[in-house]
Amino acid sequence: MENNGKTIILKFKYKGNKRPTIENGPFGDEKYRFELMYFNWLNESLVSTNDEKKELPIEIHALFTNVRYANLETASIKNLGIAVISNKYSATEIKYKSYFYEFLKNVKNPKEKFELHKSENLPLSMIMSTYLEYHTYVGKSTIAQPGSCGGDVIWLDFIEPLTIMPEEVQYFRDLLSSDGIPMMNTIINTNLPNSSVYLAIDSYNYASNGGTAENFEGFGVSIDSAKSSIQKKYFFIIFIECIILQFVF
Prior knowledge:
Oligomer: single chain
């Protein structure tokens, strides 16, 4: 875990070929391996609020690279070389124990690093969640890319937010950027999608409510092309079989 002055980067160590991968669903025949995670700071005007819960201007992004490429540096400049899974956050008063957020106290200041002891197990499922419904589209990465501005990225934005308690929200508010201001007061630029936005759904629940949808077998673009040749269209719903993704952990 490292405070790089703009965000908190989380990197993990795995033995042999135990690194998590994702495939199927919107990835078509391609396969992506897990590289790192980082937090994304949003403009508060972009988050939703209702009577039951208030979303926070925080997202956690899990970054995966296409297995065709040896490392993140190479994948980041390739078209669809990267896929990102995004989870939003909302505050809750429900009491539960999650020791992960306490680690943020160790990287409050820029350039601070914290490493867990190898005996401590921190599964990705403790940090992120992959609920059934999500939006998927092609866009740009929100993390600085080496080399050029980077190729197009496949995004999966999960709809149901992660919940954290008020004291855990405070850990985020205490994080400082390289400018000496609270990291949450800095906003990472978010670009509009470069493609249609698709909604992956629970087919059983959707059909039982009278909905209709279509099969979807990936974006149908060549990852070797310089740009994704996807036309911008209006939003519509797409059905991605019953099992949307195969997560291999």
